[in-house]
Amino acid sequence: MFGSACVKVSLANYHTFGLQVYAARLLFPQNEAEVPTLAEQATYVIGEGSNILPTGNLPALLTTRGLLGFQILRESHTEVEVEVAAGENWDGWVRYALHRGWYGLENLAAIPGSVGAAAVQNIGAYGVELAPFLVSVYGWHKERKAWLTLPAEACALGYRTSIFQTPEWRDQFIITRLRLRLQRRFVPVLDYPDVAARINPKKQHDPWHLYQTVRRIRSEKLPNKGNAGSFFKNPLLGQTELARLRQKAPDVPAFPYGAESYKVPAAWLIDKLGLKGYRIGGAMVHPRQPLVLVNTGTATPQDVLALATYIQARVQEAWGIQLEPEVRLLHP
Ligand code: EPU
Fold first, then answer.
1. Residue nearest atom 8 of ligand 1, based on CA coordinates
2. What local confidence, expressed as pLDDT, does residue 222 receive?
3. Domain map of the chain by residue range?
4. Which of 227, 261, 291, 293 to mutate to test ligand 1, by most ligand atoms within 8 A of the CB atom?
5. What percent of the chain has pLDDT over 70?
6. Which residues are known catalytic residues?
7. Ranges of residues in the chain whose predicted pLDDT is under 50
């Protein structure tokens, strides 16, 4: 891609759901200096488009995927602090860190998307989240017309959420770099049942073995095209809400999250309703991971939306729980 803006662009290569949709313009800064001017013209800001559902043809989009590179800021015997450009591919970065002997991100292997998006969502998988590794976020604020550094404490990171999803920041703040603190000593996190079951005890001190194990688990469950990962968030319930759900579903799994919440697998709530493989038009509930909605090849945005709405209605009716989308819906 040359130049900084294209007119009426197919989003085939710019989002992972594989829908036939277009953007009125695609703004593509190649370096930070181009961000302020191009941001002015953009309605939405995306990374690699791996967590979005365009619900039709879209107005102007800015993608940060042209912002590449990294810089070591501080290194000691125990840790390293690095600043990574937002457009770097997340998994590529995780692998690079492992090569350098910078540890902590192994369980976040193979998560689709860019480094910048990792902070927007506080990505998490297999018992690890981005949050403890994030030092700060740097970017351009359109309305304030300023480059800002937000320390991690100011980013309000929670379960798949951050300040960058609030109206004041979303599409207003273009993240261009993350500062991360990684460890020189490898301490494997093996709590997640799928990981514990698959890890070879003889190799549990080998970071690449953990990385590859997570990769394998993911690839068995998550198709790498025609979807945007988990479509819904796992509901977080308080003690009372969980007790109420357990009256209807005594065997529902629940995992403590923070001091007062329990994370209940939405996949379980959907699975129990027999919806694996359920289709509307070209959209389908993934047969192995019902939290993932897939485009079988011919889905329209309306098919995916209708399927999502149907699942929400069935879950609400059966379990009294409102599922919230985890993917971001982008409207025309
Ligand atoms: N389950 C079923 N039936 C199934 C699959 C799962 O009942 O067919 C139940 C089981 O009880 C299982 C539980 O759901 O133990 C959890 O399933 P899984 O380990 O596949 O994880 P998940 O909760 O569905 C979350 C994240 C994923 C992340 C995995 C692994 C969210 C919204 N999703 O999925 O993240 O990779 O855990 O940590 O938190 C994403 O955000 O896009 C994403 C893929």
1. 289
2. 80
3. 5-63, 70-193, 236-330
4. 291
5. 98
6. 160, 230, 326
7. 1-3
Give me ligand 1 centre to Cα 267, in Å.
Answer: 6
Q: For domain 236-330, give the CATH number.
A: 3.90.78.10
Output the pLDDT for position 3: 44
Class of domain 5-63: alpha beta
What pLDDT is stored for residue 2 in this prediction?
Answer: 41
Instruction: Convert the chain into a string of H (helix), E (strand) and C (coil).
Output: CCCCEEEEEECCCCCCCCCCCEEEEEECCCCHHHHHHHHHCCCEEECCCCCEEECCCECCEEECCCCCCEEEEEECCCEEEEEEECCCEHHHHHHHHHHHCCECCHHHCCCCCEHHHHHHHCCEECCEECHHHEEEEEEEECCCCEEEEEEHHHHCCECCECHHHCCCCCCCEEEEEEEEEEECCCCCCCCCHHHHHHCCHHHCCCHHHHHHHHHHHHHHHCCCCCCCCECECCCEECHHHHHHHHHHCCCCCCEEECCCEEECCHHHHHHCCCCCCCEECCEEECCCCCCEEEECCCCCHHHHHHHHHHHHHHHHHHHCCCCCECCEEECC
What's residue 292's pLDDT?
Answer: 97
How remote is the CA of residue 241 from the centroid of ligand 1, in Å?
20
CATH 3.30.465.10 at 70-193, yes or no:
yes
Q: What is the pLDDT of residues 253-308, one digit of tens each?
A: 999 998 899 999 999 999 999 999 999 999 999 999 999 999 999 999 999 999 99
pTM: 0.96
